[in-house]
Design goal:
By secondary structure, the protein is mainly β. The protein has one domain. The protein is 4% helix and 42% strand. The chain is built from two helices and eleven strands. It has helices at 107-110, 131-134, and strands at residues 38-46, 55-59, 64-74, 81-88, 96-102, 115-124, 138-147, 152-154, 160-162, 167-172, 179-189. Strands 1, 2, 3, 4, 5, 6, 7, 8, 9, 10 and 11 form an eleven-stranded antiparallel beta sheet that branches. The protein is globular, with a radius of gyration of 22 Å. The mean pLDDT is 80.
Length: 197
């Protein structure tokens, strides 16, 4: 653009604030839809079970790149509780699957804020007697947070990037503990280049 007004850039001592760059606001949330990227969120309230661990999480899909960038845990118990984030490269057997909600009502051919059937949320309180039983083929903890009774906190370790059937879950450290957890993030179609890292 400066070339239209003469040869070269203005002398810096006259206009140091003028540079040869264009800044596009393509990282703003409302622009994601134009990149085939969609915002999601979902909340789970998993009942306590006297002999099993309660867990809630997000499971990847083979056709999507799913990024979980917000995790919020609420301790609704009358005592302090510790919660862990665990990950697996393959999906666990047992948890019930549901889907997250869309956060942009322009997305997906006018489906609005409704259920997209895209990002998979999982929850369970009947299959795992201990945290170790869930993570037998998994990794972690990626993070551990202790919350006082009635407290809530956003876990700072996110984001998690999920492809294939990988999953990440939040679970209390003890049985007979109710889990209230919320997730937020975005997803887009998985491209071959996403797997070349």
């Amino acid at each position: 653009m400066h070339g239209l007004k003469g040869s070269g850039a203005p002398a810096p001592q006259i206009s140091p604030e003028i540079t040869h760059s264009i800044s596009l606001e393509n990282d703003r949330p409302e622009q994601l839809v134009h990149q085939d990227t969609h915002l999601f969120s979902g909340s789970l309230d998993v009942a306590a079970d006297a002999t099993h661990i309660s867990l809630g999480g997000v499971r990847g899909r083979p056709d999507l790149l799913t990024v979980v960038d917000t995790i919020r845990v609420a301790n609704v118990a009358a005592v302090a509780a510790t919660y862990e984030i665990r990950c697996r490269d393959t999906s666990s057997v047992g948890p019930t699957a549901t889907t997250a909600l869309n956060r942009d009502n322009r997305s997906r051919a006018g489906k609005g804020f409704g259920n997209l059937g895209s990002v998979v949320l999982i929850f369970d309180n009947t299959n795992f007697l201990t945290v170790a039983a869930y993570v037998a083929s998994g990794l972690g903890p990626w993070d551990r947070v202790t919350l006082l009774a009635g407290d809530s906190d956003e876990v700072a370790i996110a984001p998690f990037i999920l492809t294939g059937t990988a999953e990440m879950s939040v679970m209390p450290g003890d049985v007979n503990t109710r889990l209230v957890v919320s997730f937020g993030g975005y997803y887009r179609p998985l491209a071959a280049a996403d797997l070349q890292v």
